[in-house]
Amino acid sequence: MSIEKDIRRIVWKIDKRLIPILMMLYIFSFLDRSNIGNAKIAGMTEDLNLRGNQYNIALTVFFFPYALLEVPSNVVLKLMRPSRWIAIMVLAWGTVMTLQGIVQNYSGLIATRVFLGTAESGFFPAASYLLSIWYCRFEVQTKMSIFYSSACIASAFSGLLAFAIEKMRGIGGLGGWRWIFILEGIATVVLGTALALCVPDAPETAPFLTNVERSILTRRLQREYGRSGDRSEGHSFQWKYLKSCLTDVKLYLAVIIYWGNSICLYGFNYTVPTIIRNLGYSSANAQLLTVPLYIFGMVTTIACSILSDRAKVRWPFIVGPYIFSLLGFVGLLAIPHPAYPGLTYGLLFLIPGGGYPPLLTCLAWLSNNTPEDWKRAISLAIVIGMGNLGGTVGSNLFPEGHAPHYWMGYSLCLGFTAAAIGGTFVLKGMYERMNEEKRRVEGETPEFRYVL
């Protein structure tokens, strides 16, 4: 009983040191990439003279470097101190965000969006990997949900912050939308960099743990993942790790599951202020009305993660929420717009409510079933990178000319959500077969069993 109390005390010490820092950094990250949706209805489109699909292109170009650089970023993370690498990323994207507030034309906006995607590319896979090396398999999703819920907080806070900052229009001769970028960018540089330098690097070197606590934690994590999870495998990158990941079909199924979130929610996040404004609300009220949607998404994400960890199973907590989201898209397709603004607004709750939880469950599932340390770092980066390429699709699903019905956007989101549900069942079947094979070879109590 004493050792269990010691473990709970150690985990609580880790929680206090790691989770709040990662949450705050992710708030800045998500706020800085998504506030362009708030800037759009605060006057950016008119001031930069954006025409046709130029706004959607500006959204899209962010995702190419963001997705392609996530694997290299996690390799760098493994080769140097994570705290230093994260600090470099935060300083870079905060600087770019500040400069985005002074762009004068479409070309300048495109350039800053590309650099923003480059600078932010490594943070989410880095944070996901860090959580996986500090916590056991049926702790990690709950911890990830608390961390990831900060995206919901950022989305909600973005509307409130934009509502307040927009009133600065005219100060310094600048539009309100410019101040959204400038102030949030400066805050990122100042606070984000200070926080990043406080990120603990690894259990083996944690300065806030005693030698005894570090030993208990290290043994606990090695028991959880079996011998293949031993972090003593070395710190040098080998190409076999990347080849092993790229030839693993399970990763591509995880990407399909991830797309149910990234394609639908990136399109939703960038468009929902406009959707609400088209229901007859003012721009300011549209900013405020986005807040409850994301709060609801945060609640469902944390609830599903806690239930999944307690049940020690993943797939139902992907399929269930996605069905919830799917029903939302069906409803939005079925009703005329903007004839029923109250009903439309109510159906919008189903999208973040059902779309946010599966992403974390998918990543926890992948992390749980990848005991090898290097492969886990690269696998998470590949799935997050390829998954975020879905943002290039999502950012183009709701063009301005399709308002207020958005038939194409809602229909394609419905299709991608259905595909994610199908991919979940296929992946579940593969893990069941792999467990059966392990029982056949190793007996009824294999050293490592894949989580379903």
Topology, element by element:
Elements: H1 2-34, H2 36-47, H3 54-61, H4 63-68, H5 70-79, H6 82-100, H7 106-120, H8 123-134, H9 140-165, H10 176-196, H11 211-225, H12 239-246, H13 249-277, H14 283-289, H15 291-311, H16 316-334, H17 341-348, H18 350-368, H19 373-388, H20 390-394, H21 407-442
InterPro entries: MFS, MFS_dom, MFS_trans_sf
Protein name: Major facilitator superfamily domain-containing protein
Subcellular location: Membrane
Explain the overall architecture.
The chain has helices at 2-34, 36-47, 54-61, 63-68, 70-79, 82-100, 106-120, 123-134, 140-165, 176-196, 211-225, 239-246, 249-277, 283-289, 291-311, 316-334, 341-348, 350-368, 373-388, 390-394, 407-442. It has one domain (2-225, 240-442): Up-down Bundle (Growth Hormone, Chain: A), CATH 1.20.1250.20. The two termini are 29 Å apart. The protein is globular, with a radius of gyration of 22 Å. The protein contains 21 helices and no strands. The chain is mainly alpha-helical and 452 residues long. 76% of the residues lie in helices and 0% in strands.
Question: What's the CATH H-level homologous superfamily?
Answer: MFS general substrate transporter like domains
Shape, per Cα inertia axes: globular
Rg of Cα set: 22 Å
Stretches with pLDDT under 50, minimum 5 residues = 227-234
Characteristic terms for this protein:
single chain; about 450 residues; Growth Hormone, Chain: A; 21 helices
Short description:
InterPro entries: MFS (IPR011701), MFS_dom (IPR020846), MFS_trans_sf (IPR036259). This protein has 21 helices and no strands.
